[in-house]
Amino acid sequence: MFRGIDEVDWASMEHAYGSAADVPELLRGLASRHPHEREAALDGMYGAVHHQGDVYDSTLACIPFLFGLVRHTGLPDRGGIVELLASIGGGDVDDAPAEPDGRGSGRPGGDEHPGGPDTEDRPDDNYTVARAAIRSGAVVFLDLVTDADPEVRRAVPTPLVRFSEAPGRVLPLLIRQLTDEHDEGVRLALVEGLGLFARLHPGLSAPAVDLLATLCAPPHAPGLRLAALGQLALCAPDRLPADLVSTVVELLHTRSAGSRSSGEPTRTSTDTLLGRLRRMRPADEEGAQLLRTLHSALGARTGDRIALLEGQLSSADTADRCNAVWMSAGLFREWRAAYAEPVALIGEQLASDEEQLRQAAVSVLEFLFGLAEPAADRLAALVASDQDSWGRGRATLGGPLRALARAGDPRSVPPLTEVLRHRVVPNETGYTVRHLGPAALPLAPLLRERLADVPLDDADTFGRAAPLLSALGALRYAAAVPEVLRLLQGAPRDLRLRDSLVEALTEALVAFGPAAREAIPALRELLSGESAVAAAAALWSVEGDAEAVLPPLLRALAAPGSAGGSRPAVSALARMGSSAGVALPRLRSLTDSADLWERTAAACALWDIGADPEPVLPVFRDAWRQNPYARGTITACLVRMGDAGTPAHDLVATELAAPRRHRARSGGYGSHDVLEDETLLSDCRRVLEGS
Questions:
Q1: CB-based contacts of 259-264 (< 8 A; 24+ apart in sequence)
Q2: What is the radius of gyration, based on Cα positions, of the chain?
Q3: Strand partners, 14
Q4: Cα dihedral angle (299, 305, 306, 311), rounded to 10 degrees?
Q5: What pLDDT, on a 0 to 100 scale, did the predictor assign at position 391?
Q6: What is the DSSP string of 408-419?
Q7: CA 381, chain centre distance (Å)
Q8: Which residues have a Cβ under 8 Å from the Cβ of 427 and sit 6 or more positions away?
Q9: What are the distances in angstroms from CA 484 to CA 460, 472, 491?
Q10: Buried-exposed string 606-642: b where 16+ CB fall within 10 A, e elsewhere
């Protein structure tokens, strides 16, 4: 297995954490007699040598030894090594569904990448070499289809189909093995292999599709039929039965009422990343995979997917309902539809005695914000019944309370009042309060008290103050001006994140407006310093003195700097309207900026100041096409433009007709993506209704 391993210059290679000198120890650990050592070694391979899907020179050097390990009949846990080889070879790159409308990501300000491997930064040569190496060794997988270890047989169909260069040999082998195989979990994996074969080799797929269609019908077991239906939906949807959803729901309930296959092999559960992930897996992972495949295949067929979710959520089996709740998250985040009924059913799960099911339901409801309203009664009941979960005196706000407040339900105000009575307040409380609107006004005095408790010189001063300031600004509670000035004038110059703190303080003063007049002297003092732009924005809102605020804003607009660095000044000038007319020439030049966000902000300011749509609309059209994340900013400006924005209304109408959320993307989601999309849709309707 390890012939030549000591001749490899591992120390000259790298993995995710530097030198790869420890890789031989990991490889040998995969062959250990002790289960916990094997799992720890596999955990190390994923954690360093193949970290987050990356392929390093050390990863490439491991491939021959990994193949040697899987050839070693009798070695336990070889199925995990087969899965590792498949992942190194490229995962599901070849058969992953394409984005339906080609929309890409691109957050303003260069925010984090979506979850999953960052393919843009990968060294393509390593991936090409890895894929070629797995292909060249894939003949091994042909023998493993009949291996004595069911874990190996369960792991091998997908990499066999994906990497084999002899598809003419693969399909007959899969079909024959499906006939001979008695392990139900392996049979499901073979069905997945048939579906993948049909997608990758459409010219040879007829026998695979015919067999999948046969497996969809009685007398085959419910799990096998569900697997076949999912694969048929992916590769030959025209062969699906007309009553697909009712058939799937009936099969699901029948499967749950009867005995289930093991689905996942029993493995050690060590204190490794893999061990922790296994403990987090669904109680019925096999059922989760079966239904997840169907949901993925149905894609934009939201009516069918909602009906399927409702069937899953009506199951008598807790695991079925828990799986349904987690699957609903992908549907809600990616597609636009009427979700009141499934959301209400998710709310019903909050009354379950199963903690895992309740937690799943809360997790989904939290990111729905206003769409969680059909579940609000159940959320309110859960909040009322479990006061210990509110987060009083702790660092984190309770999930049910957070979900209820994000839904805009005033029943969250009394428990939030109790949370705010404690000097230690969960940091997200202030941001959560914003979603209650005027109903949160009774909380304002307590928010002010907590702001007064924020120390002037603590490492977490900004982290504690910013959420409170956000809430006070949203409520326009100008009575908190003294507390704002305490921080503005008292925070030391060397305070961590002081500039961010000043920005948060001045944004609150912007919201307070003329009621914050006692802040004028402090703001004027800041006009000549590093926070001049933020101070000028606040001073304009409070005092309205254009002569005082224009010089620092114009200086910031003209100053050289990084792309997009002038946006705060642009936004402040836009708030001034026609009083900032002197800035129009510079703003017009910024509409040619290389930075999309700077161009978009400048175009919005051109309208707000000069009310001329001619230089604005071309910038909007270009940014709308280039980056979906800009659409919210553009649409908000189109609302202000009224009839002057009519030439861009085709973009708005197309967006309203699109079934997919504008931020939907593969590989991960942001916690506010649904909220941002619903806000965009609301503004789109306002644009068209006002035309």
A1: 260/223, 260/284, 260/286, 260/287, 261/183, 261/184, 261/185, 261/188, 261/223, 261/286, 262/184, 262/185, 262/286, 263/184, 263/185, 263/188, 263/287, 263/289, 264/185
A2: 29
A3: 19
A4: -160
A5: 81
A6: T-GGGHHHHHHH
A7: 29
A8: 395, 463, 464, 467
A9: 16, 10, 11
A10: bbbbbeebebbbebbebbbeebbbbbbbbbbbbbebe
| Distances in whole angstroms, Cα of residue 646 to Cα of each of 123, 254, 641, 677 | 46, 55, 9, 22
Q: Which residues, 6 or more positions from 312, have their beta carbon under 8 angstroms from its beta carbon?
A: 249, 252, 291, 320, 321, 323, 324, 327
DSSP 335: B
- CB atoms under 10 Å from CB of 322, counted, come to 27
pLDDT > 70: percent of the chain: 90
pLDDT, tens digit, for every residue of 36-95? 999 999 999 999 999 999 999 999 999 999 999 999 998 999 999 999 999 999 865 445
Q: Which residues pair with 15 in a beta bridge?
A: 18
State both tokens at 157: 């169909």
In 3D space, the residue among 273, 271, 290 whose CA is nearest the CA of residue 282 turns out to be 290
Q: Which among 486, 476, 413 has a CA at the least distance from the CA of 451?
A: 486
Q: Rounded to the nearest 5 degrees, what angle is found at the Cα of 557, between the Cα atoms of 551 and 563?
A: 155
Q: Report the C-alpha gap between 454 and 469 in whole angstroms.
A: 11
Residue 538 and residue 555: Cα distance in Å, rounded? 17
pTM: 0.86
Measured CA to CA, the distance from residue 382 to residue 377 in angstroms comes to 9
pLDDT at 102: 33
Give, for 182, the enclosing helix (H) or strand (E): none
- If we measure between CA atoms, which residue out of 188, 284, 173 comes closest to residue 228? 188
Residue closest to 152 by CA, chosen among 162, 142, 164: 142
Sequential DSSP letters for 233-260: HHH-GGGS-TTHHHHHHHHHHHHHHS--
Q: Tokens 């008290």: give the residue.
A: 449
The count of other CB atoms within 10 Å of the CB of residue 324 is 28
Packing angle of the helix pair 673-689, 318-334 (nearest 10 deg): 50
As a three-state string, the secondary structure of 18-56 is: EECCCHHHHHHHCCCCCHHHHHHHHHHHHHHHCHHHCCC
d(CA 629, CA 146): 50
Give the pair of three-digit tokens for residue 36: 């916990």
Low-confidence ranges of the chain (pLDDT < 50): 93-94, 96-122, 261-267, 276-281, 562, 666-667
What is the structure's pLDDT at 92?
56
Length in residues, the chain: 691
d(CA 80, CA 406): 42
Q: Which residues contact 79 (CB under 8 A, 6 or more apart)?
A: 149, 151, 152, 154, 155, 156, 265
Residue type, 657: A
